[in-house]
TrEMBL record:
InterPro entries recorded: AMMECR1, AMMECR1_dom_sf, AMMECR1_domain, AMMECR1_N, AmmeMemoSam_A
Lineage start: Bacteria, Bacillati, Actinomycetota, Actinomycetes, Micromonosporales
Protein name: AMMECR1 domain-containing protein
AMMECR1 domain mapped to chain residues: 12-196
Length: 196
C-alpha cells in the first residue's frame, strides 16, 4: 500500500473517512439522516477523489468511486458510500448484513498518463500491486483499484479483465485507447458490528 502521505491524507484523516463512510451506510440502513457535517480536519475539505468498497464476509457488496477530484473529499466519500450500497452490479446492501460489513475507503492520488500505443507497451508500464489503472477510448472507460492486483496478480490476466470490464475484447488491444495510473491510500472500518 502507498503511504497515506503520498496522496495527501494522514492516517488519522483516513481513519475518519472510513468511520464517516460506515456512519453513512448505517444511517441509510436505519432510515436516519446521513451525516454531512463539515469536518474540522482541513485535509478532508479540499477536493479529492475516493472509492468506497463494501464487503460482507469477504464477498463484494458494492464498490463505487470517483477518479478525478470534483468536490470536497468528505462529500465524495459520503456520495460514494451511498452509491456503493446500491451498486448496479449486485443486489442492494441490507440491514441484516451490517454486523459482517467491512467498509473500505480508498483515497486516490492524481493520475499520470502511461504509454498505451500497444498492449505490450501498456503492460510494461504497469507496476503490479501498486498502480490503479484507468483505460478509455473516449466513449467507454474502465478502472481497477490497486487492490485488484491481490486477486489478479498476473499482468496479462489483469489487463484482460480490465478490457472485459470496459466492454472491449479481452484479448488484443483496441486502437485509440489511452491509459493512466494512480495510487491509493486505503482505510478500513472493519466488522464485526452490533446488529442494527
Amino acid at each position: 500500500m502507498i503511504p497515506s502521505e503520498a496522496v495527501g491524507v494522514e492516517q488519522a484523516d483516513g481513519a475518519a473517512l472510513a468511520r464517516l463512510a460506515a456512519a453513512v451506510v448505517r444511517a441509510r440502513l436505519t432510515g436516519r439522516p446521513v451525516p454531512d457535517d463539515v469536518p474540522d480536519r482541513a485535509a478532508l475539505t479540499v477536493p479529492g477523489a475516493s472509492f468506497v468498497t463494501l464487503e460482507a464476509g469477504g464477498r463484494l457488496r458494492g464498490c463505487i468511486g470517483t477518479i478525478e477530484a470534483a468536490r470536497p473529499l468528505y462529500l465524495d466519500v459520503i456520495r460514494n458510500a451511498q452509491r456503493a450500497m446500491r451498486d448496479p452490479r449486485m443486489a442492494p446492501v441490507e440491514a441484516a448484513e451490517w454486523p459482517a460489513l467491512d467498509v473500505k475507503v480508498a483515497v486516490l492520488a492524481p493520475g499520470r498518463a502511461i504509454p498505451a500505443g500497444t498492449r505490450a507497451e501498456f503492460v510494461a508500464a504497469l507496476r503490479p500491486g501498486v498502480d490503479g489503472v484507468l483505460i478509455t477510448d473516449g466513449e467507454r472507460r474502465a478502472t481497477f483499484l490497486p487492490a485488484v492486483w491481490a486477486k489478479l496478480s498476473d499482468p496479462d490476466v489483469f489487463v484482460d479483465s480490465l478490457l472485459a470490464k470496459g466492454g472491449w475484447p479481452a484479448a488484443g488491444w483496441p486502437p485509440g485507447l489511452t491509459a493512466s495510473t494512480y495510487t491509493t491510500a486505503e482505510y478500513r472500518d472493519r466488522s464485526p458490528r452490533q446488529p442494527l
